[in-house]
Amino acid sequence: MKTVYLGLGxxxxxxxxxxxxxxxxLSSEAxxxxxxxxxxxxxxAYGYEEQADFINAVVCLKTELGPEKLxxxxxxxxxxxxxxxxxxxxxxxxxxxxxxxxxxxxxxQDLIIPHPEIRKRAFVLIPLVEAAEEELFIDNINxxxxxxKLDYSSDEVEFYNEFPELNLNKK
Length: 171
Fold this sequence. Notes:
Layout: E1 2-10, H1 15-28, E2 32-37, E3 40-43, E4 54-63, H2 67-80, E5 95-101, E6 106-107, E7 112-113, H3 122-131, E8 137-138, E9 141-142, H4 143-149, E10 157-161
Antiparallel strand pairs: 1-4, 1-5, 2-4, 3-4, 3-10, 6-7, 8-9
Helix pairs in contact: 3-4
């Protein structure tokens, strides 16, 4: 089983419900076991800023799925939850990104691991540091050091709430 970290975000109401549903759908996959979720964080929009604030979180999971199969599952879940890609960085019901997949460095036409934007985004690093079950590195630098290097304020990323309690028992 590989350890994977996923970044989740939503800025279309009901935001928290979309995040919950995404985690429940992930956990319903036989080859995915959710280990931990970060708290929820309210964050300003990134890229295209003329839109509603996001709720972001990070999920740590174990999986037997390879990176491309996991991406397929993620895209299926995004579609099931109404994600429509009309504008880069535009509003979305749910966004799920593979941040880390074990210690793998991987690049294909559709996927880069570790996610290339992690080091620039406090809204990813803050919940990632919280959810991390081990030390994580990008370019041999610990993710906490990348977070220390960022210039951000609590107005841009603030604690929103604990991740809602979920019943993720496999049947």
